[in-house]
Structures are given as C-alpha cells and as structure tokens.
C-alpha cells in the first residue's frame, strides 16, 4: 500500500496528520510560498508530540532553487540542527542557473544529513531535463523524489510521473504530490505506480480572534490547517476501504 506523507506547516497540522493516520509528515513553514524551513522550536515540540516520522523541509526561502554560499551555509546549519533535534529525515533540493541539479551543493547537504533519510523536493519539477535530473538525484543517494510530473497537479502530470517510476526501476521512490486528495489518489496511484503520495490535506480554519482586522493585508486572522477528516479520507482511499 502506498505511504501517505502530509505537509504540515504547524504543530497543530502535524498532530492532525498523525491523528488521521498519516505515515509521516514533512514539517515545514510558509506553504503559500511552497514551503520553507520550520523553526527550531517547531521541530523540537513536534518531536516531543509525534510518534510518526518527521521529515523536515530545508529551504531557506521561497522562489527559485539557485542558492548562494550564505544560503548553502544556512541549509547545512539547519540540517545539522535536524540531526541534533531528532528528525527522521530532511527534504532538500538545489539547481544551478541552467536548471540542472546542483550536484556539488546537494552532496554537501546529503553529507550533513548523515544517516537521516533524504528526499529531493519539487526543485526536481523545475529542472531542465527531468531524466538527467533523476539520475543525478539517484546518484546522490536520495531515498525519494517529490514530483507533480512538472505539471500544475500530480494527476495532470500522471503520464510523466509514470515515466519516472519506470526510469527509477526501484532505485529510488517516486512520491506524487500536488493537488492530491481522497477524490483522486487511487486514480493517481493506478496511473503512475507510485509507492508514496504527498498532500497537505488542508482546510480553512476560522480564527478564534474576536477582534478581526481583515482590512490589513497579510494579517488576515483566518488560516489553513491540516484537517483530520481529510487525512483519514486519504488513508481510506489509499487502503481501498
């Protein structure tokens, strides 16, 4: 049965993922920007409260995946913190200016991770040549790569993902992510042959604030959080129950 990873951008989301039956979480921040590295405090508190594996996204900012030396040093420091703080894995990725995998930088990131499980994130979808990028990622020793098939959603990219599964041929896990829900996950698995799926399973949450300043851009009180029922529905769909 394919595994389910939930992208959790808060401790509450991480706990909801666990309660709903997810196999692991990708702990992150700022999902609206595609995800960035969560705080040290968030990781430590999540580790105290969760029984399921925690993989930590290591991405210093939104935008592209071309990093300077200061950003590289920050990512290495964040990975070292993940090792010390009890994370089970890290999620990394970097490209050069031509859209190739930045193998030299990624080697440094993988080395810093040591024995931690390593996922290559959706920087893969921004690569110039997906077939060559996948071979580079396999050579780096990553355990899996997250992809939507370089499409707006994983279902739209299902043909490309299926091709990547065939190319990987068991050398690396291909994890489908991007618009994955209980309504489409079985079709996605059937069409692609992936062994892992990734979703945020998010739903809108109304803030408990009685003072509501909805007139302040960027400070709106309501937010999105992983929903237990959506996680359960995803798990049920994957298990065919």
Nutshell version of this structure?
The chain is α/β, with parallel strands linked by helices.
What does this structure look like?
By secondary structure, this protein is α/β, with parallel strands linked by helices. It has one domain (3-206, 217-239): TIM Barrel (Alpha-Beta Barrel). The protein contains eight helices and ten strands. The strands form two sheets. An eight-stranded parallel barrel has the order 1-2-3-4-5-6-7-8, surrounded by eight helices. The chain has a two-stranded antiparallel sheet with strand order 9-10. The N and C termini lie close together (12 Å). The mean pLDDT is 96.
What oligomerization state is this entry in? single chain
Helix-strand pattern, N to C?
Answer: EHEHEHEHEHEHEHEEEH
Q: Which CATH class?
A: Alpha Beta
What share of the residues lie within helices? 25-40%
Number of strands: 10
Instruction: Give the terminus-to-terminus CA distance.
Output: 12 Å
Radius of gyration: 17 Å
The helix-and-strand class reads: alpha/beta
Say which CATH homologous superfamily is assigned. Answer: Copper homeostasis (CutC) domain
The percentage of residues in β strands lies in 15-25%
């Amino acid at each position: 049965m394919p595994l389910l990873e939930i992208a959790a951008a808060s401790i509450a989301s991480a706990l909801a993922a666990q309660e709903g039956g997810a196999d692991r979480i990708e702990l992150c921040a700022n999902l609206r920007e595609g995800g960035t590295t969560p705080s040290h405090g968030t990781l430590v508190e999540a580790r105290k409260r969760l029984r399921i594996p925690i993989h930590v996204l290591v991405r210093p900012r939104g935008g592209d995946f071309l990093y300077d030396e200061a950003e590289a040093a920050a990512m290495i420091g964040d990975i070292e913190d993940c090792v010390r703080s009890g994370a089970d894995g890290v999620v990394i990725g970097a490209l050069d200016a031509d859209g190739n995998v930045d193998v030299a930088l990624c080697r440094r990131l993988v080395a810093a991770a040591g024995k931690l499980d390593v996922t290559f994130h959706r920087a893969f979808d921004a690569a110039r040549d997906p077939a060559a990028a996948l071979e580079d990622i396999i050579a780096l020793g990553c355990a899996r790569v997250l992809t939507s098939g370089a499409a707006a959603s994983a279902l739209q990219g299902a043909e490309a993902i299926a091709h990547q599964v065939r190319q990987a041929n068991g050398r690396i896990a291909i994890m489908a992510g991007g618009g994955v829900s209980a309504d489409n996950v079985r079709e996605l698995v059937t069409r692609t042959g992936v062994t892992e799926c990734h979703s945020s399973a998010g739903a809108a949450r109304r803030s408990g604030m009685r003072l509501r300043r909805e007139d302040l851009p960027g400070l709106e009180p309501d937010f999105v959080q992983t929903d237990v029922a959506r996680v359960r529905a995803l798990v049920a769909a994957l298990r065919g129950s």
